[in-house]
Amino acid sequence: MNKKIIILGAGLSGLLIAYRLQNKGFNIEIIEARDRVGGRIHTLHSDTAQVEMGATWFNDIHVNFKKLLSELDLNYFEQFMEGTSYFEPFSAAAVQEIQIPKNSPSYRVSGGTSQLIETLKSKLATVPIHLNEIVSQLNFENSKVKITTQNQSFAADYVISTLPLALFANDIIVTPALPQKLSDITEKTHTWMQDSIKVAFVYAEPFWRNKNFSGTFFSNVGPITEFYDQSNSELDKFALCGFISSGMEMYSKTERLEKLKIQLVKVFGQEALNFTSYHETVWAREIQTKSAGQIGFMYPHQNNGHPLFRESYCDNHLFFAGTETANQYPGYMEGAVIAAENTVEAILKL
Q: May I ask which residue range the UniProt record assigns to the signal sequence (predicted)?
């Protein structure tokens, strides 16, 4: 009889693990708390926009991620950086024009990063994905693991968690309790994007390109801290997209937008106000990304890649496989692929 594997989380790591294991003699199901797949990969699509609210860029050093794109016949293109960019050093200073050297280009997935997610999902015809199921308890006391959500319970031989580690530690009760050393580390592990606010302005025309501006902008002042051209590869949808100060979370969406508009005019001029739509994601408010129980300051990537995350627990019935567990590039899409491949290898050795 085939062993049953429950994967917690339908992001890149979870879907890739299911894809690799689905024809290896296991019965696999995925439990996802959100109403969508993808996790911290989230592309917004409309007739006029294609903007990334989550993971976006990768580089040539991300060889495993690029290999996966090739395997799945997905294309990518270079991030547009041509022309004049801007830098705002401090509030009393004028915005400076700068040139960014093309020595290490970044890339984006053609059609949006969610193309990768949807492609993996489409290949999981026999793998049920249960959306809107928030796991609250894992019980390893009997021969089968019992997984409890707010709606139902599941039984499995193995559980692979790809959830943010601090979220797992704070929001899921595990019986018997996991080692204290592991719990202490997971509670203090930074989840990439957990404090990020990502915003996007969509335009009918790329006014910045028409003026030989790259759309790239860095600021030590804020509220916008970094901004980039986010036109699609076909050049029929145009946007500026990037990050704003995490302190902007305290304001309403309307208040944030008003502050951003002031800075847009300062940097790009009045034309920047001719946007057709505005989008934002405050990741700290995404309860599937950041636990309400996680308090206090965290350094970016704090405890990411800790060796304890790559051990198995509960007599080889519990594995961790989110991007923050990876021994290389934790927190990035490359790390998600590495973590998934490492976990698949461990499962196949059981």
A: none
